[in-house]
Structure formats: C-alpha cells, structure tokens
Amino acid sequence: MIQIENLTKRYGSFTAVNDISFTARSGRVTGFLGPNGAGKSTAMRMMVGLTTPTSGTARVLGRDYRSLPTPTRHVGVMLDATAQHPGRSGRETLALASAMAGMPRGSVEAALERVGLTPREADRRVGNYSLGMRQRLGLAGALVGDPQVLILDEPANGLDPAGIRWMRGLLRDYAADGGTVLLSSHLLHEVEQIAQDLVMIGRGRIVAQGTKEELLRGGGTIVGSPDRVRLTEALQRAEHQVTARPQGDLVTSATAEEVARLALAEQVLVTELRSASDGGLEDIFLQLTADDAREGVTEGAAA
Ligand SMILES: Nc1ncnc2c1ncn2[C@@H]1O[C@H](COP(=O)(O)OP(=O)(O)OP(=O)(O)O)[C@@H](O)[C@H]1O
Ligand SMILES: [Mg+2]
C-alpha cells in the first residue's frame, strides 16, 4: 500500500506538486495520470526519497521509504529507464541490483525470464539496447528483489503494442497476487486498460480520483432537446445539476433513465440521450485538464 497525504513540492515560487492525497491499495493497479509537466515524476520521486517534500508525507507499506530496511526487497522502483549504466550488460546490471537486495543468484535469471529478455540479449551492453529493451530491463530491476510494491514512472514508454500488452498482463498478475502497483502515464488510453483505480493530476493538483467505474459514471448524461429551457428547469427541480454546452446540448448529473422519465412527464421532446463517458475516460480527462488550465489562467490574472 502507498499512502500519500497532503504532499507538496515547491521550487522557489513554482509549485510542482500541490497538496495531493491518495492511496494506492494492494491487490490493485493504480494509474497516475496527467499531461506533461503535471507533477507525476516529482511526486514519485518524493515517494522513494529522491526528492524531499516541501510538506506532506508519502508512506510505502506504512513507512517512510527511506526507513525501510533493504527497500528494494519491498518496493520495486523504475523511474527513468534511460538512466542505466550504458557500459554494463543487462545481466551485470541486474546482478548488481540483486546483490544489493541480498537476493540469491537465481533471482537474476528469473527476473530476465519474467520480462522476456533472452540470455543473448542479457549479455549485450545496455548502451546498445533499444528503448523497449531498456524498459524491460528496468522492470526486471524493479522485480528482482521480489517486492510487494511497484512504483513505475511511464513504464510503457517505448514499448511496441505487443510489449504494452505483455506488460499489462505482467502488472495485472502481479496485482492479482496481492501486490500494489502505481504506474504513471500521460496517455490515458494506456492506463485505462491496465488500472482499476485512477488518480488524475493536472498542474500539480489532483483533479479526479476513484475507481475507473466511478470516474466513468461521474461523466453524467448528454441530452439534446429543442426545448432545453423547460428540460433544464425540470432537471433542476429534481435537484440534478445541468450545464448547457457550447455544442447546443445539455450535460446533467441525472442518469439517462431519469432524464427520460422527466421528459415524458414534462412532455418535452428529447432528440439525443447518451452517457457523457461514451467517449471513454479521454473526454473526462481532457475536460478536467482543460478546466484546470483555465483555473491556472484565472489565478495568474489575479496575482
Ligand atoms: N528540480 C526542479 N527544479 C525546478 N522545477 C522542476 C524540478 N523538477 C521538476 N520541475 C518542474 O515541475 C513540473 C512537474 O514536472 P514533472 O517532471 O513532475 O512532470 P511530469 O508529470 O512527470 O511530466 P511528464 O509527463 O512530461 O514526464 C514541471 O513544470 C517541471 O519543470
Ligand atoms: Mg515525468
């Protein structure tokens, strides 16, 4: 389990991570999503003690990462797969990580096999690895200590479609065995298919979090009608939220059935009725980050 409470990081007057709180639970894959520069890597670096928080706490398995005895036996970390030493072979890289974790020798071959690097590939210098191979090696390094928690920053970067599918299976199985997985991405599509829980971050702030189902349900219903005014009034009387969209339709917190019943009772014609989440989480994500960008502009103007 990973527990983040009111975590904040400021660089001078710039706030990279702004008071974020969430929990990544065991047995589940948690996706940490946000556009470029949102603060994902900064937050993850704070979780593993590489960056000191300005305020707030990050606890992994109930403790500060730095106070864990032999942290790599508990937490597998992959932050930047391109940072591996180019002169060592993949096997040497893993042997070092394995020795540091105090693992038996066989753990290296087991980790290589788990990530699909062949013995021949393992003997090549990391400097000659493709990006995808580096990601696999990075994942092997995270897994070599047989940890209960994985913290992975953009692990799918550079993987081809088959590689992404392979990684999805690996992480799902890992979580199904009781492990905790926190993985970041700026690509919704990628995370949508792996994660059960989602934390969305924009400009350092959490803009939405919950299970994937909760977030999808939270999208509301889109309603088209030639009589929007009456329909809006009826929805509001029933205590539903309603917003008129620039496209000329309405988005409401009511379910499609609730809208249909109200429209029938009011004798209002409805020409379109669908879940706002039909476009997938992407719509929600873009909407949320767009709102966040506007908030940033307002704040800037006020300052
Ligand atoms: N050491 C630092 N000094 C100053 N600013 C920093 C530092 N580290 C990060 N930042 C800033 O904090 C913000 C968040 O960066 P971060 O790398 O955490 O984003 P990210 O969500 O990981 O983005 P990406 O998807 O591009 O990897 C950026 O504006 C970045 O420039
Ligand atoms: Mg990053």
What is the CATH architecture annotation of the largest domain? 3-Layer(aba) Sandwich
Largest sheet: 6 strands, mixed
The structural class is: alpha/beta
Total helix count?
Answer: 11
Alpha-carbon distance between the termini? 39 Å
Order of helices and strands: EEEHEEEHHHHEHEHEEHEHEEHEH
Uncertain spans: 294-303
Q: Describe the global form.
A: elongated
Number of domains: 2
**Can you tell me the CATH superfamily of the largest domain?**
P-loop containing nucleotide triphosphate hydrolases
The order of strands across the largest sheet is 6-7-8-3-9-10
Which value, in Å, is the CA radius of gyration? Answer: 23 Å
Explain what the structure shows.
The chain folds into 2 domains: 2-210, Rossmann fold; 218-279, Alpha-Beta Plaits (2-Layer Sandwich), CATH 3.30.70. Helices cover 39% and strands 25% of the residues. The protein has 11 helices and 14 strands. It has helices at residues 40-47, 90-100, 106-115, 119-123, 131-143, 161-176, 188-192, 212-217, 228-237, 256-266, 281-302, and strands at 2-11, 14-24, 29-33, 55-60, 63-64, 75-78, 149-152, 180-185, 197-202, 205-211, 221-224, 242-244, 250-252, 272-275. The strands form 3 sheets. A 6-stranded mixed beta sheet has the order 6-7-8-3-9-10, sandwiched between helices. Strands 2-1-4-5 form a 4-stranded antiparallel beta sheet, with helices on one face. Helix 6 links the parallel strand 7 (149-152) and strand 8. Helix 2 packs across helix 3, helix 3 crosses helix 5 and helix 9 packs across helix 10 (256-266). The longest helix is centred in the last third of the chain and has 22 residues, at 281-302. Residues 294-303 have low confidence and may be disordered. The structure holds adenosine-5'-triphosphate and magnesium ion (MG). Adenosine-5'-triphosphate is lined by residues 11, 16, 34, 36-42, 186. Adenosine-5'-triphosphate (ATP) binds at residues 11, 16, 34, 36-42, 186.
